[in-house]
């Protein structure tokens, strides 16, 4: 991606941050922290799915590059940690306060450096829409640097989805509240732990009889098994999924 000055308005609170000599960063790139230096979104290792890529990037999101860094350069660059920036987006309509995350490039193996798109879960977001648009190819975004602890009111964005009566694999951008009416025991596979830091789900079993839903992490390991009139609450610390089961209200 070529350098593009994307700043629109408000204070940017820039910081100086190191860049590895082999990393190329352009002005306007979305960047993340990789241990002790900054990298562009497209440099992140592929997590084999758009939602997983978005979730990992959002968890390490630093801000927007105000200065570029060519191949071989080792000088620190300035990165904006706050502010409103205008990014490219797939043609879409947005309302003020909508969540946006980094877009995946068409090849499906890396994120775009300077493009965003709508996301459902706050855990996948790197900012909020600043100005409503209709069928737009660019959108103004108030960035939220998770590295500096900027928080979104998660509860405001939690939604509910009804799962089909079948085995289900959840992704990081699926709705927080999941419901199912199973007619036989079903398995629900949770997203990979490495891209699920801070991620939570509620799984409500609405079966008419005593039938279990097995909510499973990697392995697979069963984390919780709500049965009729029960709900599982599961959460992840980036290494392990945990869960508990309670009665439906």
Outline the structure in words.
It is a single chain. It contains two helices and 20 strands. The protein is mainly beta and 249 residues long. Strands 1-7-11-10-8-9 form a six-stranded antiparallel β-sheet, with helices on one face. Strands 2-6-5-3-4 form a five-stranded antiparallel β-sheet. The model has no long low-confidence stretch (mean pLDDT 93).
Major sheet attributes: 6 strands, antiparallel
Helix share, percent: under 10%
Q: Could you say what the CATH architecture of the largest domain is?
A: Beta Barrel
Strand content: 35-45%
Major beta sheet, strand line-up: 1-7-11-10-8-9
Cα(first) to Cα(last) distance is 51 Å
Instruction: Assign an overall shape.
Output: elongated
Tell me the series of helices and strands, N- to C-terminal: EEEEHEEEEEEEHEEEEEEEEE
Integer count of domains: 2
Q: Kindly provide the radius of gyration, computed on alpha-carbon positions and rounded to a whole number of angstroms.
A: 20 Å
How many strands? 20
Helix segment tally: 2
Structural class: mainly beta
Would you identify the regions where 5 or more consecutive residues have pLDDT less than 50?
Answer: none
CATH topology of the largest domain: the name is: Virus Head Decoration Protein, Chain: A
- The level-1 CATH class of the largest domain: Mainly Beta
SSE inventory with pairings:
Elements: E1 7-9, E2 14-17, E3 30-34, E4 37-40, H1 50-59, E5 61-65, E6 77-80, E7 84-94, E8 99-104, E9 111-118, E10 127-129, E11 133-143, H2 154-157, E12 160-162, E13 168-169, E14 177-180, E15 186-189, E16 200-205, E17 213-217, E18 221-224, E19 230-236, E20 241-247
Parallel strand pairs: 12-14, 13-15, 14-16, 15-17
Antiparallel strand pairs: 1-7, 2-6, 3-4, 3-5, 5-6, 7-11, 8-9, 8-10, 10-11, 16-19, 17-18, 19-20
């Amino acid at each position: 991606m070529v350098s593009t000055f994307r700043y629109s308005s408000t204070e940017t609170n820039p910081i100086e941050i190191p860049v590895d000599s082999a990393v190329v960063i352009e002005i306007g790139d979305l960047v993340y922290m990789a241990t002790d230096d900054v990298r562009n979104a497209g440099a992140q290792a592929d997590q084999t799915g758009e939602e997983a890529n978005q979730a990992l990037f959002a968890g390490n999101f630093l801000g927007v590059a105000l200065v570029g860094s060519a191949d071989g350069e080792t000088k620190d660059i300035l990165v904006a940690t706050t502010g409103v920036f205008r990014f490219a987006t797939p043609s879409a309509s947005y309302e003020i306060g909508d969540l946006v995350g980094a877009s995946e490039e068409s090849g499906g193996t890396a994120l775009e450096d300077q493009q965003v798109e709508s996301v459902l879960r706050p855990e996948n977001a790197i900012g909020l829409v600043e100005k409503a648009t209709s069928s737009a190819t660019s959108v103004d975004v108030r960035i939220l640097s998770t590295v500096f602890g900027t928080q979104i009111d998660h509860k405001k964005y939690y939604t509910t989805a009804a799962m089909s009566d079948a085995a289900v694999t959840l992704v990081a951008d699926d709705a927080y509240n999941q419901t199912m009416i199973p007619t036989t025991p079903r398995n629900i596979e949770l997203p990979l732990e490495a891209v699920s830091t801070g991620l939570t789900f509620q799984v409500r079993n609405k079966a008419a009889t005593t039938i279990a839903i097995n909510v499973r992490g990697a392995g697979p390991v069963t984390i919780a098994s709500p049965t009729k009139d029960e709900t599982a609450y599961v959460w992840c610390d980036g290494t392990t999924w945990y869960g508990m089961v309670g009665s439906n209200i």
